[in-house]
Design brief:
Layout: E1 4-17, H1 21-30, E2 33-47, E3 52-56, H2 63-70, E4 78-83, H3 93-96, E5 99-103, H4 115-126, H5 130-143, H6 159-171, E6 177-181, H7 189-206, E7 209-213, H8 217-223, E8 226-231, E9 234-239, H9 241-248, E10 251-258, H10 270-274, E11 278-282, E12 286-292, H11 296-306, E13 309-316, H12 319-328
Parallel strand pairs: 3-7, 3-8, 5-6, 6-7
Antiparallel strand pairs: 1-2, 1-4, 8-9, 10-12, 10-13, 11-12
Bound molecules: adenosine-5'-diphosphate (ADP) and magnesium ion.
The site of adenosine-5'-diphosphate has 12 residues, from strand 1, strand 2 and helix 2.
């Protein structure tokens, strides 16, 4: 049975529109004017045990709202969800002990305590035995290379160090399901890689089911077998990342290398190149062209026939760019 089952999940926020001035305030008492934001609309998906799913979407798409509902922090306006057999917003103790939510933009640790004590407080809240606590902290702090930071005040830690400790705090009770909302946001590249490697290993060895949102495609590409793309509250795509390329990449990149003897006079000036496709890069001896998928074969043929080409290479547009274009439209 799937670990996470979401069906028709919907969340509308009513925010209330203040009317200007004193009269507006008085009128507001009589007839309140509301704005409705449909943050999540009719979202349905299943996640099996051990899956590592990337949740993608532009800002405001409803990712955080979905994760908050699955963590029981928010009640939905409609629909159902079941995680490990629990309805998250019923906030049963049994559920609380089996999942964790990490919000990259928020802090769960106490700032005025050394990291280790802050973690110990978290452990107390979950009723974790001292021996398990010590074992887990030793192991995870080693893997995340923050062992020597455990006695530093949380407020004195760098963002990356703090995030790693947040991650340790989230894993102290060995949750079966993990919701990670932008866990690598703002981290330096070294910390990003450490966190990424750690998560991959954790998912592989513990079979933890993970739902991850990230602005960094590297996270998604390296970790997630499956991506769910949301846009304006609705699911727009659910499948493998490679399918996103097949379905949404309209272009390919063709790189040509010209024979050393070929000079611009040999007919390879910018204007000539532009007639084959959009020139995205050009050096003395090479040019990279962006060409519509269905034009790739005729364009390659024409390039070989008409220019002194010594080598030719065809590649996909980077997934990062495809996603950017998807979000832009
Ligand atoms: N507490 C709230 N009250 C009103 N609107 C909200 C609240 N939380 C989120 N929203 C709105 O819901 C939409 C989805 O937000 P969010 O789930 O944070 O998106 P994402 O995480 O994908 O960037 C946005 O339009 C946001 O402004
Ligand atoms: Mg968000």
């Amino acid at each position: 049975m799937p670990v996470i089952q979401v069906s028709g999940l919907t969340k509308a926020f009513r925010t209330y529109k203040k009317q200007p001035g004193f009269l507006g305030a008085v009128r507001g008492l009589v007839s309140r004017r509301y704005d409705t934001t449909h943050a999540v609309r009719d979202v349905s998906f299943y996640v099996e045990e051990g899956e590592f799913v990337g949740f993608l979407g532009p800002n405001g798409a409803g990712k955080t709202t979905t994760l908050k509902m699955l963590s029981g922090l928010l009640h939905p306006t409609g629909g159902t969800a079941s995680v490990l057999g629990y309805t998250p917003w019923e906030r049963k103790d049994g559920y609380r002990r089996q999942f964790a939510l990490l919000l990259g933009q928020k802090n769960q640790l106490w700032w005025d305590l050394p990291a280790r004590e802050s973690l110990a407080l978290n452990a107390k809240i979950y009723g974790i035995a001292q021996s398990q606590f010590e074992r887990t902290v030793a192991e995870l702090s080693e893997l995340l290379s923050v062992r020597e930071k455990l006695d530093v005040m949380v407020r004195e830690l760098s963002l990356g160090e703090r995030m790693k400790l947040e991650l340790i705090a989230a894993l102290l009770h060995q949750p079966k399901v993990l919701f990670l909302d932008e866990p690598t946001i703002g981290l330096d590249v070294v910390s990003q890689k450490i966190v990424r490697d750690f998560l991959r290993e954790h998912n592989a060895t513990r079979k933890t089911t993970i739902l991850l949102t990230s602005h960094y495609m590297a996270d998604i590409q390296e970790l997630c077998q499956r991506v769910i793309i949301v846009d304006r509250g609705s699911i727009f795509f659910d499948g493998r990342l490679s399918e996103v390329i097949d379905r949404f990449a309209d272009f390919k990149l063709i790189t040509i290398r010209l024979t050393p003897a070929a000079s611009p006079a040999a007919g390879c000036d910018r204007q000539k190149l532009e007639s084959y496709g959009e020139v995205v890069e050009q050096t003395a001896a090479t040019a990279k062209l962006k060409v519509k998928r269905d034009r790739v074969i005729p364009v390659c043929k024409a390039l070989l026939d008409e220019l002194p080409v010594s080598d030719i290479d065809i590649e996909e547009v980077p997934i990062e760019e495809i996603i950017r274009q998807l979000f832009a439209r």
